[in-house]
Amino acid sequence: MTTSNLQDMTVAELAHALKSKQVSAVEVATRFLAQTGGNPHNAFLDIDSEVTLAQAQASDARLAAGTGGLLEGVPVAHKDVFVTRDFVTTAGSKILTGYRSPFDATLVQKLGASAQGGAGMVTLGKLNCDEFAMGSANENSAFGKVTNPWDIARVPGGSSGGSAAAVAARLTPAATGTDTGGSIRQPASFCGITGIKPTYGRASRYGMIAYASSLDQGGPMARTAQDCALLLSAMCGPDIDRDSTSLDVPAEDFTASLNNSLEGLRIGVPKEFFGDGLAADVRAAVDGALREYEKLGAKLVPISLPRTELSIPVYYIIAPAEASSNLSRFDGVKFGHRAKDYTDLVDMYKKTRAEGFGNEVKRRIMTGAYVLSHGYYDAYYLQAQKIRRMIADDFQNAFQQCDVIAGPVAPSVAWKFGDNANDPVADYLADIFTLPASLAGLPAMSVPAGFGTGDMQNLGTGIGKPLPVGLQLIGNYFQEARLLNAAHRLQQATDFHLRKPEGI
Ligand code: GLN
Prior knowledge:
35% of the residues lie in helices and 12% in strands. The chain has helices at residues 11-19, 25-36, 49-65, 106-111, 161-168, 185-191, 225-235, 280-295, 311-326, 345-356, 359-372, 377-398, 424-429, 435-440, 480-493, and strands at residues 44-46, 75-79, 122-127, 174-179, 194-197, 217-222, 266-270, 299-303, 404-408, 444-452, 467-475.
């Protein structure tokens, strides 16, 4: 086997090639490490080829002995909010510059060394992201923006922008991401890859640096639904001793149902996801995917998620409230950065946090502290919690009529850097279609569904770079297998997930 095409292979293909000894884990790792030289798209925050090659050697030994894990020797890279012993972890924040964790996050462990019970994947490094996963464009990283491989003048989406860009640019066959309000789905959509956020609590949050604990959920990002199924099967499962919201639901082999027929599948199409704010090119691609599902035997059912719009204020009250509490631990005492000149303890806290946090993080801590403060708690936080429950109930009503919900991931394709500069709320509004499933804790994913141009004047003329559009699929609790099956069938009928950005 030539190593030149290794970076085009899927996780499933690499796992097979490694098991059948067509290629070694060291050869695969070497090839991908060569790709990351010069750090294209600024996707990586930490790379350590010695660590990676040592892991690959260990994988080769296990492959030779026939004791390898399910994904033995296949490379993966982790969003920098997962703590890792062997790589620096910063969560994209200056306040954690150079921080090394004494332990690995559960998901890192579950995907990692098979000698420790993991799937046997080899870690290529850590991926850039918005600071503490707060953002929709990866412009909030303290270590520079990530560029979109489809058009470097555009954002890759966020907050898992490094993960999505790295997979799209073939720097890694798969990555982890985290999704609090859309951060797996939206960058997957903007970069033309596949990503799934499982049911809240299904994959452990242990060692995932907390942003908004009642919403945070890790998941896989890869090029195909099959690859996501392979990784997710390794990632899920109870971790109740270490994560208090981990669900006692056994792991599942999500690849088992990938080829199920879609005959009779009822796909709910929420009218609120197709309003005036939806760009024409996104609408056209999503409509095309829905037609494809009809051809595969599915039935489209009009539904309503009446509180879709409210998900924005509700999320942007609850998430900052939780963040203001979670981020209080970064005080210059236990982790990372500490200010140099200070007069007393309180002054040290103040200066450390003023220097260490970026603007968006500060904005959210202030918003969070405000909505939780005496006098405003009832007016904002409590109201938001009540509406959050109603949003979850709306989904349960909808699932009386359908098996899966489908719609756009985002109202537009990836926007240009600077388009939303000085207007953080513009970014918040673009989260409208991903927030509802997050607030309800439902599994949801993004599947490549076509291309737009983001350029309304030139729509349909072929002028302008093709920019990926993702279809969002939302399932009821624990219906990950059904989502992955639907995504896989779409990928068998279309080739959007196979197309590559120019020059890659
Ligand atoms: N864009 C949303 C936010 O800024 C979602 C981020 C996420 O899912 N981590 O909070």
